[in-house]
Amino acid sequence: MMKRLFISLFLLISLQVLMAQQSANDFYDAGVVQLENGNFTAAIPLFTSCVEISPYYYEAFLDRGRCYFALGKKEEALADYNSALEQKADYYSAFYQRALFYRDAENMVKAFSDINKVIELKPNKVDAYIMRASWYDEAAEYDKALADYNRILELKSNDPDILISRGRIYQSKEMMEESFNDFSAVIDKHPEKAEAYYYRGQLLEVVERFPVAIEDYSSAIEKGLDVEDLFIRRYTLAMKLEMYQIAVYDLNKLISDYQPRDSKLWNFRGMCYAALENHDEAIINFNRAISLDRNNEEAYINRADSKVATGKDASALSDYNRIINLNPKNGYAYEGRAIYWFNKERFDLASEDFEKAIKFAPTGRAYFYRGAMRDMQGDNKGACEDLQKAVELEYPGAQDAMDRVCR
Asked: In which domain, by residue range, is 30 found?
């Protein structure tokens, strides 16, 4: 009789435990549904009911902590992560989430400790290596970051984002060939990855392969990468290579989206328009550059040159004078004013200004025009000396002029 009573009591208790566990599972499953749908506030009481029924339900503590963290309730989240680890000391998912908490709290010592524990418990967990590698990267611990990126690629072969990250580490360590190979491998297999073109373009720029670098920067832009530095890099190279239409496009982007009040950018765009012989548009840009920075000497000089090109000589002279008042040692202003006087055949004034131009900023242009002036004045020796200097400074047409004058 007693035996039957004991068995019945045992079965009753077992049934109650089973029912409680089933109920805890129901609350947990319902909470997971809400969590996955982003309904964090609705998920929290369901996980709470689960742990009230089953205090050892470590998954519920972890997921409730995730909800708290998503809602900005950081201390509650930390308490739940700790509770999950109290119930299961080797619960790597809790270490992972707590590492994110410490990273958010800028406690990197504890963050690294937890992510290292994850990797110890789960040596093939790719996400943990990715997280740790990014932290090493941010801390400029490039050797450690590189080791993690290599491990990730062993576990997850040819992941393009990891190859890009590793390529950037190689780039930081000045391992240019390895870096180039990683970016090229991404482009070969994943040509949609705009960042790979951007970073490879930087490497090509370092070795002065400027036309190819521009091609890579252009590909990055075509594929949707919108980074200020990208447009700066391309317009700088485009101006160097006299690809002024490309430079104008990039300067338009920078002025409209990034730096509308940067005097230098307005000046550079004016220079491009001037090179394209659209001097009216150039003057508009130089005007804006000067209005943003009254001391932008280069913009005054460029505006004066464009005014000369459009026949506004008197206004150009005013600009040259203004620059010289701002900076009496600006050789380019003296050069521009000297050429103005040269064209007016005021050789006495031109000679004085050429002297100062060559003193403060000797250019092939100044020597060429002074040589031409001296030739017109019958000073063959002086003309040849100046034209020889212009040739040495590679001024266009100087060699032909010298061959003609100095026979």
From this structure: 12-89
